[in-house]
């Protein structure tokens, strides 16, 4: 018996030890030879890399009751979406873009709520304004889900706005974009036609099967698998619907894992949109896959700096810290919410 360590911290939401088989079909898109492919470096044509991420936070759960005595649930929440703008060739300093907090009053029921403006006693503390957003259902976690949905929508819009268009021709020599967006998590439905790459840090779904997955443990840093193709939501034969959108996917190794970690440590899955009903990989997607190993190895974090290394990229960690600062202290925000409610419905308290 061999014992291997899951490299992610135990307080992380989920580890990387279990893989659920993908129920649908996965096709070879680039080559039928299932072998490791080397990186080809980062061409000079690629001038900007933007790493996009978002961070949600619930700040208070609320119970609403109207004149008729009907109860419904709500919540104060916040989220931040932003980007790190960097040069892959190191010719300029990285910069943060668009990192600011949006605050949400998510509510259920038939209420018509106005924005909640929390004004502090000290004007230098700033005013917190929560914009109302309804959600359907009456679940306590509905408010959290609404904040998450708003964050993902803004994240998608930011990625699409920043990324270069991506031609979907098979042989276009100018298909490689000047601006490439790395988006934390899978790409979203409706992002096709832009140079957006989703990077999945934690592997939960097995898209490879027993005959292919062994290659992942053999990859050297910077090497990748051939590109595969699947359909989002495909549940296999016998299920109606047939999935939603098609994706290209491939795997890259960022570093060699220590001998005591499981063999998939240091492997990241990448994902891009695939055009419908074609049997080729567009030249732009091919070129991005070819440079992905060199790029991600350059951005990979180190274990002595980040417990989620190497998959939690250095720009991602910096962006997470900036987003946390933008939302402010959760303890102070909670006090402001209590003071606001007390001032509206009871005896005012000092914020």
Automatic annotation (TrEMBL):
This is NurA domain-containing protein. The lineage of its organism: Bacteria, Thermotogati, Deinococcota, Deinococci, Deinococcales. It holds the Pfam family NurA. Residues 48-313 form the NurA domain. SUPFAM superfamilies: Ribonuclease H-like (SSF53098). It comes from Deinococcus aerius.
């Amino acid at each position: 018996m061999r014992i291997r360590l899951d490299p992610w911290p135990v307080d992380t939401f989920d580890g990387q030890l279990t893989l659920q088989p993908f129920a649908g079909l996965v096709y070879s898109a680039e080559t039928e030879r299932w072998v490791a492919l080397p990186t080809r470096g980062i061409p000079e044509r690629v001038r900007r890399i933007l790493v996009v991420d978002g961070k949600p936070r619930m700040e208070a759960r609320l119970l609403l009751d109207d004149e008729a005595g009907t109860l419904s649930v709500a919540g104060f929440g916040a989220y931040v979406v932003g980007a790190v703008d960097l040069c892959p060739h190191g010719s300029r300093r990285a910069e943060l873009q668009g990192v600011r907090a949006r605050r949400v009053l998510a509510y259920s029921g038939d209420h018509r709520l106005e924005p909640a403006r929390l004004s502090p006693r000290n004007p230098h503390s700033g005013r917190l304004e929560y914009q109302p957003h309804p959600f359907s259902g009456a679940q306590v976690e509905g408010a959290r889900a609404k904040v998450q949905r708003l964050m993902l929508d803004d994240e998608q819009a930011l990625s699409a706005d920043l990324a270069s268009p991506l031609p979907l021709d098979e042989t276009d020599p100018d298909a490689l974009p000047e601006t490439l967006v790395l988006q934390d998590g899978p790409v979203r439905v409706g992002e096709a036609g832009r140079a957006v790459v989703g990077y999945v840090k934690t592997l939960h779904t097995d898209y490879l099967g027993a005959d292919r997955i062994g290659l992942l443990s053999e990859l050297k840093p910077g090497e990748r698998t051939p590109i595969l193709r699947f359909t989002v939501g495909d549940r296999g034969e016998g299920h109606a619907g047939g999935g939603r959108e098609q994706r290209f996917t491939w795997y890259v190794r960022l570093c060699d894992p220590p001998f005591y970690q499981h063999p998939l440590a240091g492997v990241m899955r990448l994902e891009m949109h695939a055009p419908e009903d074609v049997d080729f990989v567009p030249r732009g997607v091919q070129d991005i896959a070819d440079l992905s190993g060199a790029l991600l190895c350059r951005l990979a974090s180190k274990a002595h700096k980040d417990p989620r290394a190497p998959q939690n990229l250095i720009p991602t960690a910096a962006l997470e810290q900036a987003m946390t600062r933008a939302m402010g202290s959760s303890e102070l925000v909670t006090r402001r919410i209590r003071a606001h409610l007390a001032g509206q419905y009871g005896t005012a308290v000092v914020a």
